[in-house]
Structure formats: C-alpha cells, structure tokens
Design goal:
The protein has about 675 residues and is mainly α. It has four domains: about 160 residues, no CATH class; about 100 residues, Four Helix Bundle (Hemerythrin (Met), subunit A) (Up-down Bundle); about 140 residues, no CATH class; about 190 residues, no CATH class. The chain contains 28 helices and no strands. The chain is globular, with a radius of gyration of 28 Å. The N and C termini lie far apart (about 60 Å).
C-alpha cells in the first residue's frame, strides 16, 4: 500500500485500471464456467427460486403465526410447498404454469389434510402412507407437473403424520399455507421470472462455450477425455435448445437444427479423429459463428413475438394406454420395501420411522434396475453421513445466532434444489444439514437426532436393496440391453439407405440422442463400482456405444444420392452391411445373447471390402462405424453376457481380431 501511495497519480490510475480489467476478466471467466457446467443456468435459477421462495414463505408464515399466537410450525405447509414446487413448474405458457401450480397446491393440501385426519389412528395412518407412496411411485413416468404432485403428496403426508395436528390447528395450517403459492408466484413470475424468451439465448451461449472448449482443447490422448465430456454436454444442451425453440418458433427450429447438427458434426470429427490441424479448428470456429448467427436471430424473433394467448390443445390419450404406462413394477417394489422399513424402523423410533419409509421412496424413484437402486442407496447413505456430521458442527457453531441460522438454511435449500435432480448425493447432504438446523431450532438435541436419522436411513436403504433383489428383480444387464436395443434401432433409422434424398429429421436425430443418454444413465451404476469385475467391461461398453452413436450421426448427414457414381457404388452396399450388422445385434439383444465372433465377422462380408478408392475420405466414417459395431458385439459379451475370459479378451485386444471386411475397409480408406 505504501508503494502504491508513493506512485505518481498517472501510475496509480494505470494500476487501478489494470486491476479493474483483471477483475472483469475473472468475473467473465466465472460466468462462462457457470454456463458450461449448467446449460442455460437452469439449475442455478431453479435453486435461487426455491431458496428465495422458502425464505419469503418462512418469513410470512412464521411472522403471521407469532402475531396470531399460534405455534411456529403453523407455517410449515407453506414453507415446504415453496421449497419443492419451483423445481417442477416448467411450463412455458403462462396459463399452463398457473394450472400446474394449482394442481400441485391442491394435491399438497389434500395430502396434508388426509394425514392429519388419520393420524389419530396409527394403523390407518401407516396404511395411508404406503398407499400414498405407491401412488406417487406410479407417476414417475409422467411429466414434471405429475412428478411434482407426487413429491408434494409424499412430503405433505409425512408432515401431517409427524405433526398429527388437531382439527383446528390443521385448519390454521391449511389457511396459512397460502403463503407458499403466493411466495412462489412472487419469485417465479416477478423477482426471478420464468420467461420462455430468454431461455434459448442462455442455452445457446452454453452450446457455443462447449464448442469453443473443444476447439481450444488438445484432442490427443491426454485431452481426449475432456474434449469428449464437452462433446456430450454440447449434445445435451443442443437437445434442450431445440426443445425450447420448437415451443415458440417452429419456423426457425429447422434452421436452428441444421446449424446445430453442423456444429456437432464438426466437433465430433475433431474429437474422434483427434484432428489438431488448423483447418479442423478453423472449420469448427466457422460452424460456431454460423450457429451463433442463427441462434441470435431466433432469440430476437422469440423476444419480439408475443407469446401464444392460449395453450396448445393436449392430444387425447386413451385411459387404458395411460394406465399401462404407469410404473407398476417399481411401485410394487417400493411398497413392499416401505412395509418392511416401517416395521423395522418403528423398533428404532416410534416417531422417526417415517424417515426409513421416505428412504425407500427416494431410493426407488427414478430407478429401473438393481444396480440403479444400489447406486442411489449408496448416494443417500453417503450424503446422510456427511450431512449429519456437518449439521452437528453447524448447529454447534451457529445455534444462538438466529440471523446466521436463517442464512445457512437458505444456502441449504439452494444447494438441495441445485443438486437434487442431477447429483443426488450432494442434494441429500444439504437436505440433511437443513433438517438438523430445523430440529435444533425446535429444541431437539442434535447429536441424538443425527444418530437416529443415520439409523433410519440405513434401515430404509438396506430394505430397499433387499426388495430390489427379491421382489421381481430386473438385472442391470437386461436393463442395459433394453436401452441399447432402443439406441441401435434409432441408429438403424439414421444410417439406412434413403432413396428419397431426405436426411433424417430433427425428431429422428434427437430421438437417437436421447436414447444414447438413456443408455449412459443405465450403464453409470455399473461403471461406478470399481471393485467389481464388470466395471472395466461397463466402461468399455459405454465408450463403444458412444463411438457408434457419434459415427452414426456423422454418416446420417451424408446421402448416397448427393454424390456421383463411385460414391453410390460404395455407400449403398456399405450402408446395407452396417444395417445388417445392426439388425443382428438387435436380434441377439432380444434373445439375451451376443453374436459369435465368427458370425460377427461374416455379417455383411465383402460389402465394405469393395471400398477400393482411398481418395474418398468420407468413407472413413462408414468403415469406422462398422468396426465399432463389431467391437460393440464383443462389449456386449463382456459386460452383459459374461461369455469371455480374460485370456480371450487379451487375445482380441490386437488388430488381428477385427472382422476381415472391416480390416479391408480401413486399409482401403487410408485410415
């Protein structure tokens, strides 16, 4: 400071100017980082809305309760509603948004009132808890509105059963619960408005930043994983961008899709080919510039155009069709686990057994296989253990500072809302800290409470694991095979020969993208268990499916009718060979087995071997797609069917195991 003070005035101004520039650059980089990890800032804004709405509802509800001489828990219904509802209010149109709010608030009040009524009869209350849990589990295949109703129903029933208020007190709580939807409307429509117009612009920035990271990254062995992660995130952001754009400007959606596909293909070629040439970087940057131009024009039109006055009419769905698509099997498993958790948890605590039942609900919700359930249960246990320890420390440090406690509660609500839908373990951590703070403020001893919560959560997760293994279990391999079947069917539609000269539409392309991400989610639990033999096999399967998906998207952008005779003479038989191999893989997945290696080598034999002309570089994608499909058959054997020993895998690791037609195609293509 003394050195700066001794400088001339001009030098001091220069130093101050440089510091301001550095601060602005650091802030800009931090904002760009937020857009990279959170496309469109969806999670950030959702967490901020939930935290702000909860604080407002808490201030209004608690102040009103104290003013009227009621218990401090009288505002609990409104606070809990304002914490959960903002996560599931995603309708783009105003009327749809208010309709979702009304449905969720009505379900929440009805569930709380039902729990308050039956709480005087413990057996009836427990049976009702299982029924509400079963019905909530059935709805997990529906949209955000229904899922929000399910979460609010189970949370409000737990609240009513735990507080077991008298009829008059329940009436007061329901009357004061209006603070919840009022706070949600104030936050989501005024303070942090949910407008559809700015959303595409925010997501487009995330897409551009991911593509720019790929352009700057080193795509050699050291940087290939980072570039691939950006490529996957770019595709997820592109799916979200097209979805938002199609709801507001169908005319511009086609141009946006064309620009997005060109950008994704340029990025994929740079990553897959590990192309570090200046030409590849220049082509990718040109694709970024074209995309930004199209996205800016689309965002300007959406901003200038008035929103539709009325929501689009919903397509009528037969009742029987909707009834069949409900999640019956997960609901049955969860109900069985809830009954067992209720019996075991009540031996530990007659007042906190609901925590064990809630653990069964959240462990089964959104999971489809035994591996999914184990993975979710492990995340919940880890988050609960860390959160219980943190809650003891936080309560000990800030128990008597009410203002600090309120701030920490708001931070916990934000952290829970930010993480719960994509990083479940972190969300559970923040929720456990929040629960500890709330109970400490109500006068409970935090150490004993933390031990009790850990015990109930362990009971719920253990019972859920047993139910997943015993009650009509679905093996992870079967679940992955089903998801892979859908991806291969979508790839077949993308790469098969098209005489009409029409490229696959946006719906077909994005259907394949979504199915690939479904496969990723199905494989993730297996890849997480590094102590299991299946871990390396699952990782290999994921990488091979990723390559097949990317090469399939590249091949889909080229059509034989666009080229001359030699190209058509090669591409049509080559596409037929690829489709034949995909059909064989689909057939074998249907029968729960994989192709024998000699059969895999003979599928389509001789078709790619006529490639013949090394001057046609576009053939590389076809040859590589065919080679990756052969590798995919081996990955299915290793990860799903368990037919290969370690010796066989090492024997096949060299290039001699490639199918003859693939080897010839790669040689002729100059790869």
């Amino acid at each position: 400071m003394k050195a700066v003070a001794g400088m001339p005035a001009g030098s001091r101004r220069a130093v101050s100017w440089n510091s301001s520039i550095m601060s602005a650059v650091s802030l800009s980089r931090a904002i760009d980082r937020l857009f990279i990890v959170d496309p469109g800032l969806h999670r950030l804004l959702g967490g901020a809305r939930a935290a702000l709405a909860s604080v407002l509802a808490g201030a209004l509800g608690i102040a009103s309760a104290l003013h009227l001489g009621f218990a401090i828990t009288t505002g609990a219904v409104g606070i809990l509603f304002s914490m959960i509802a903002p996560l599931f209010l995603r309708d783009a149109l105003r009327l749809d948004w208010y309709e979702s709010l009304a449905w969720q608030y009505g379900i929440a009040c009805a569930s709380f009132a039902a729990a308050a009524c039956v709480s005087a009869w413990p057996a009836v209350g427990k049976a009702g808890f299982v029924i509400v849990l079963f019905c909530s589990m059935l709805c997990q295949t529906r949209g955000p509105r229904t899922i929000g109703c399910a979460f609010l129903a189970i949370a409000m029933y737990y609240l009513g059963l735990y507080l077991h208020p008298a009829a008059l007190q329940a009436g007061h709580m329901l009357a004061m619960s209006i603070a919840g939807p009022a706070s949600v409307v104030l936050v989501c429509r005024v303070l942090l408005p949910v407008h559809a117009a700015p959303t595409p612009r925010l997501i487009a920035r995330s897409v551009s930043l991911h593509a720019a990271c790929i352009a700057r990254s080193d795509v050699s062995d050291a940087g290939a994983l980072d570039a691939m992660a950006h490529l996957l995130a770019l595709n997820e952001a592109a799916i979200a961008l097209e979805h938002h754009a199609s709801t507001r400007d169908e005319g511009g959606a086609h141009a946006l899709h064309t620009a997005l596909v060109a950008l994704e293909i340029a990025s994929a070629r740079r990553v897959l080919n590990r192309d570090r040439t200046d030409a590849a970087v220049a082509g990718l940057r040109a694709a970024i510039a074209r995309f930004e131009s199209v996205a800016d024009g689309l965002a300007a039109r959406i901003t200038a155009a008035p929103p539709p006055a009325l929501p689009r009419p919903a397509r009528a769905v037969p009742w029987t069709a909707g009834w069949r698509t409900l999640a019956w099997l997960p609901a049955i498993r969860a109900a069985a686990a809830a009954c067992a958790a209720m019996l075991i948890g009540e031996t530990l605590s007659s007042e906190r057994w609901m925590w064990a039942v809630l653990s069964t609900f959240v462990v089964f919700f959104g999971t489809y296989s035994c591996a999914d359930t184990i993975y979710r249960g492990a995340q919940r246990v880890a988050g609960t253990l860390a959160g219980a320890l943190a809650s003891v420390l936080v309560v000990g440090a800030a128990h008597h500072a009410n203002a600090l406690v309120v701030i920490v509660m708001g931070v916990c609500v934000f952290g829970w809302a930010y993480h719960i839908l994509h990083a479940y373990g972190r969300g559970v951590f923040f929720l456990t800290v929040l629960i500890g703070l709330v109970y400490a403020q109500l006068g409970f001893e935090i150490g004993a409470l933390a031990e009790l919560r850990i015990g109930e959560v362990l009971i719920g997760c253990a019972v859920s694991l047993a139910a997943a293994l015993l009650v009509m279990p679905l093996a992870a391999s079967r679940h992955i095979a089903t998801r892979s079947h859908g991806l291969l069917a979508a790839l077949r539609e993308l790469v098969h020969d098209r005489d009409d000269g029409i490229r696959p539409g946006a719906a077909q392309m994005r259907a394949a993208d979504r199915r690939f991400h479904d496969v990723r989610m199905a494989i993730r639990p297996l890849a997480a268990w590094r102590m299991l033999r299946a871990s390396g096999d699952a990782r290999r399967l994921s990488d091979t499916l990723l390559s097949c998906w990317l090469y399939g998207r590249i091949v889909a952008t080229r059509l034989p009718v666009e080229a001359g005779g030699p190209d058509v003479a090669f591409e049509r038989p080559a596409r037929a060979a690829v489709v034949t191999r995909i059909d064989a893989l689909i057939s074998d997945l249907d029968h729960g087995r994989s192709m024998r290696l000699d059969a895999a080598a003979s599928v389509g034999h001789g078709t790619l071997a006529v490639a013949g002309d090394p001057s046609l570089p576009a053939h590389r994608e076809l040859a590589r797609l065919d080679a990756k499909l052969t590798e995919l058959n081996r990955a299915f054997e290793d990860a799903l069917f368990g037919k290969n020993t370690g010796e066989e895998r090492s024997h096949r690791a060299d290039g001699s195991a490639l199918a003859p037609d693939v080897r010839e195609a790669i040689r002729c293509s100059g790869i």
